[in-house]
């Protein structure tokens, strides 16, 4: 069984590419997933300059990849369901290994305009959306599904 479920924040904007020949879309981005440390342990890690989150590479294919590229930005909270994929390649005579999560489902847990301003109005208390309900838009026509 190979099943992964993650909730975290994007560490960078999704990078969208298309596979030559087939035209299949693929988006890649990093996800920071909190380690769930206690307050004391988190302070201890921070004082030693140790990460308090795991940083995981995510790959999304097809229409979901295009939606991610169009609607997600760095810092946005998402839920990911997928599988772990490992690979290897050789570069300059050195064998390198990669690990990423191939997402089969991406849930947008925060909404907002994709702009140069990375702040999310929902988190800053400045929400004017009449359909806003606890982090989810319930009637916004701009939702891609």
UniProtKB/TrEMBL annotation:
SUPFAM superfamilies: Nucleic acid-binding proteins. The keyword Amino-acid biosynthesis does not apply. Keywords: DNA-binding. One of its GO terms (molecular function) is DNA binding. Pfam families: SSB (PF00436). Gene3D superfamilies: Nucleic acid-binding proteins. PANTHER family: SINGLE-STRANDED DNA-BINDING PROTEIN (PTHR10302). Homotetramer. HAMAP family: SSB. This is Single-stranded DNA-binding protein. It comes from Tissierella carlieri.
